[in-house]
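Lab manual, section 2.4: Encoding a predicted structure.

Procedure: take the sequence of the chain (545 residues), apply the prediction step described in section 2.3, and record the output as structure tokens. A sample record is shown.
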Amino acid sequence: MHAGINNVECDVCGKAFTRTNTLKRHMDMHAGIKNHICAVCGKAFTEKGHLKLHMDMHAGIKNHKCALCGKAFTQKCTLKLHMDNHAGIINHACAICGKAFTQKGHLKLHLNMHAGIKNHVCDICGKAFTEKGTLKLHMDKHAGNKNHTCAICSKAFTEKGHLKRHMDVHAGIKNHVCAVCGKAFTEKGHLKLHMDMHAGIKNHKCAICGKAFTQKCTLKLHMDNHAGIINHTCAICGKAFTQKGHLKLHMNVHAGIKNHVCDICGKAFTEKGTLKLHMDKHAGNKNHTCAICSKAFTQKGHLKRHMNVHAGIKNHVCAICGKAFTEKVRLKLHIDMHAGIKNHECAICGKAFTHKGALKLHMDKHAGIKNHACAICGKAFTENGTLKVHMDKHAGIKTHACAICGKAFTEKGHLNLHMDKHTGIKNHSCAICGKAFTQNGTIKLHMDMHAGIKNHICAICGKAFTQKGNLKHHMDMHAGIKNHVCDVCGKAFTEKGHLKLHMDMHAGIKNHICAMCGKAFTQKGTLRHHMATHAGTKIRYCDIP
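Recorded output:
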């Protein structure tokens, strides 16, 4: 034995021994004879010495300490294998994947993984494991045992390895880098899941809606959405979220934190995903198309809201006037209108608007930009909505009817102005003669009259007019068009106003009285002619008005 001479050899594996009794114990191992049983856990051993070492483990006796790191072990041979780790001695390599191990037993367990051998099954959930130690850690999860606590944030873990990886997060260590996009991860498993995302692998499918996910945990959070489980509530506004991470991002909104900045226009965002969608706008990427009208959108959510327009769904109702909107943001802008909030001011003329979009359209007017042209008459407009109203005129569509006289209008604004006539509201007064008007546009035309501005000229006789409408009536006279007929005598007139004056004559209404002799007249023009008689002058009129 001292000379190291091995005289006896095992017939089964060829291993040689110095003593016959040592060979006998070895043969018991081949035969599976384990007569030495642990009274604590029931584990059986071939040799009494092995049982003794095992009992030391139960007693926590660790007499063999590493001189380099201080870690202690029950058995001397285990310390020796540990020292091989420090020395970098890895003699046992896997023939399948090349992974190397310090201990032969670790390689054996690793090969079981390749073979899919999982002999250690959880009694609670049925999950199987290759190693007994992994099963033990799994059982700690069921028991809620988290003995490894982070010294920085106090987060607790079941396994020491998980704590180590967590500490890498605090240290900012990200050694696992994606070869596709360059994103780095703390854990190799996280990189693998990320690579599945690039590959489009989504193995976790929702049983309710069929939506698929790359990660099982993401599917679980999605299922919480279906179940209406919202455990994370904002302490400021009360908004609730399914995921803690979503609440964290929401809190950044309250704090005004916007770390994701657009390289093109400088606009900043709270979330990286929102910046990505914004960049799609710059790139003109519109991948979400409406199946009804083919309008395309950058975001899926925008398409969803657009589909509500087609469906006529308007869930956001104004508490003041009852007007309903498809989008919440539209209702908010509408409420600002009620409140008189106009934060968007034109730098050229100072006119203020409730929303930014309205200011942009207004600026297009200053710039003379008219991209919306009528396909019938060619007239161009700044806004698409204005073109739509114009097309209704061509179609003769008048959906806004006066409740008093029944007159119908294409635009609601025109009806509102018409209603002012019924109420007698005239807020626009002439600074020269004091005459009041219902509409601002009418007073403008009236001021042109004072200024002698007559831009609308008859191509037949050269007569000029202040208003385009007056020229049109004049051209009807040239054409002999008289659509306004008297019900009493059948006389026809070119203009409705002339018929009205004629009807006053039938009714005997004479509101125009001579200040000199008291004679009354139906029309102002007739009175004017009469006044010329008092003055001894003669007024000559054109045969064609």
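Check your result against the sample. The mean pLDDT is 86.
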